[in-house]
Design a protein that fits this description.
single chain, 245 residues, alpha/beta, six-stranded mixed sheet, three-stranded mixed sheet, 10 helices, globular
Length: 245
């Protein structure tokens, strides 16, 4: 089986790269499993100070793998909750590098990360409402980042937004020109790598205490809601129409 997520460690930085071009890094069971495993491995590596999460291709993440989801989501949503929790609970800061678009479930990763650097031509979209779904699982990491007004508009409209709008809404940290994204992330990562293990760990725990408690309190409920919606007749019909268009 070809690996869909790669891990490389160099100079105190663990770089995790999503590399599933066939489905634009959609959150298949294999990708979620591999990403979770690499996050865990990087987090326990004593040489690692920072985790950098990026895509090998133009699209960062296309959301749920609808070809899998249309056949049933048994257990898949719980695995997604666990992966998002792994990012939030990690002792190591996670920096997301966004050089390409992010859709639906992929925004859960954006919300879970500690710092997000995006190119100014990147677009983002919560498409669930148009497929008979709700952004249930990813609401765990997005709602604590967003104002209530921004959440209402973005969740209900399903419209595509720019990186600048995402920054104003609260779930992107920095927006730069496309040609500057990698260098900007390099700068962020270099600053973080100057921290000690204890300093980074305890500061991240301080920052994410409430977010982690929110995930633990509502994760099972959101996984069950998501699975029920994915398995509904309305969502299955909408997903089938989307895949056949």
């Amino acid at each position: 089986m070809t690996e869909l997520v790669h891990l490389a460690v160099e100079d105190a930085v663990a770089t995790i790269t999503l590399d599933s071009p066939a489905n634009r890094n959609a959150l298949s069971r294999q990708l979620v499993t591999e990403l979770t495993a690499h996050l865990e491995a990087a987090d326990v590596d004593p040489e690692v100070r920072v985790i950098r999460l990026r895509s090998a291709h133009r699209v960062f993440c296309a959301g749920a793998d609808l070809s899998e989801a249309s056949k049933g989501q048994s257990g898949a949503t719980a695995a997604l909750v666990a992966m998002l929790r792994r990012i939030v609970a990690a002792d190591t800061p996670v920096v997301v590098e966004l050089a390409g678009p992010v859709v639906a479930g992929g925004l859960g990763i954006v919300g879970a990360a500690d710092i997000v650097v995006a190119a100014d031509d990147v677009t983002m979209q919560l498409t669930e409402v148009r497929l008979g779904l709700a952004p249930a699982v990813i609401s765990l990491t997005l709602l604590p980042r967003l104002t209530s007004r921004a959440a209402s508009e973005l969740f209900l409209s399903g419209r595509r937004i720019t990186a600048a709008e995402a920054a104003a809404a609260g779930f992107v940290s920095r927006v730069v020109a496309p040609e500057d994204v990698s260098a900007e992330v390099d700068s962020v990562v270099a600053d973080l790598a100057l921290g000690t293990s204890q300093g980074l760990r305890e500061t991240k725990r301080l920052l994410n205490k409430d977010l982690l408690a929110h995930i633990d309190a509502h994760g099972n409920e959101m996984a069950e809601l998501s699975e029920r919606l994915f398995n509904s007749d309305e969502a299955k019909a909408a997903m089938k129409a989307f895949l056949n268009r």
